[in-house]
Amino acid sequence: AVFGDRAHGTVDAEAVAVAGAVEEVEHRDRFMHANQRLGIGTNLGLRQRQMHLAIGLVLEGAQAGLIWFTVLKKREHYRRVFDGFDAKKIARWTPAKIEKLLADPGIIRNRAKVEGTVASAKALLEIKKRHGSFDEFLWQFVGGRPRVNTFKALSEIPAETAESQAISKALKKAGFTFCGPTICYAFMQAAGLVND
Asked: What pLDDT digit, counting tens, does each position of 2-23 carry?
């Protein structure tokens, strides 16, 4: 049970990370302009590509308060030490495993973020039980189809929307952490739920 599903598939997680490396930008800029850097506005076919949705959400949460490049540099190490983002394994992490991770300079050593990953893994497993997949759970917030916006200027792109607020509320209720509405909107952009 690796984080994420293939049913709807979306943007490749590697493409998200590479796009974030194009330039070291400010925190808010990364949130607001993810689609433009990924080229989603001109290539809706990206929705067809596989993305492990929860991996993207975990990495979005890890970068909260930081610039994306910080997480990008650590992405492969995260994959190794976070058990390949296997939700079942992460949900069983012991306090000793968490302490070991907090001593690892290859990750962002923030206790709340590491412990939040465990809480989020447990919540993900529960969501999958109730909804069949994390994918189905997420796509219900946009009616199963990407929201396509027609913004004319970058300044029109919101930091959050009613849908990202609803996803954030539902994820928090389920037990996820580091999933505020701004993080959720950036995640929606990267995952193809919204096309700005």
From this structure: 444 334 444 344 444 333 333 3
Nearest to 17 by CA among 61, 74, 64: 74
* Residue pair 187/56 in contact by the 8 Å Cβ criterion: yes
Q: Which helix (H) or strand (E) holds 92?
A: none
Q: What are the residue ranges of helices labelled H in the chain?
A: 13-21, 27-32, 34-38, 53-62, 68-81, 87-91, 95-102, 111-131, 134-139, 162-174, 181-191
- Residues 6+ away with beta carbon under 8 Å from 124: 3, 54, 87, 134, 176
In angstroms, rounded to a whole number, what is the distance separating the alpha carbons of residues 194 and 166?
14
69-95 core/surface letters (b: 16 or more CB in 10 A; e: else) = bebbebbeebeeebbebebeebbebee
Which backbone phi and psi does 12 adopt, to 5 degrees? -70, 130
The pTM score is 0.72
